[in-house]
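Why do we bother with a discrete structure alphabet at all? Because it lets us treat a fold like text: something you can write down, compare, and reason about line by line. To make this less abstract, here is a complete entry for UDP-glucose 4-epimerase. Read it the way you would read a sentence in a foreign language you are learning: slowly, and without expecting to understand everything at once.
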Amino acid sequence: MTNRIDSTQKAKELIAILKAQHGDLMFYQAGGCCEGTQPQCFEKGGYYLRMHDVCLGEVEGCEFWVDRDLFEYWQFSHFTLDVLDGFGVGGFSLETPLQKTFKVHYRLFTKAELEDLVPVKTAE
């Protein structure tokens, strides 16, 4: 089946560092402005999901959740989690003190991929 999210080597390396410091992690990306435009990394359970938020899958064993409205907009797109040097648009994400920020690259699924997507789960 086709994953909805993958990660770059840089993201994998940063996630390993953050897991060593903080334990289990989760990601959340909202569809709003400011911090909502970038994925945020939290200790698992450190962000309270809203009803019907969508889990796209896991990155290095960490659930990657998106706002339900964002999912409606991007449901036909593959996400690739990446890392940039520098301070992101907020200070709530765990990578901020390391002067890194997570970023997502998007691409549309091919027709074949759309027919074989991993199902999503939603928060209740």
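What the structure line is telling us, in plain words: The two ends are 25 Å apart (CA to CA). The CA atoms of residues 5 and 79 lie 5 Å apart.
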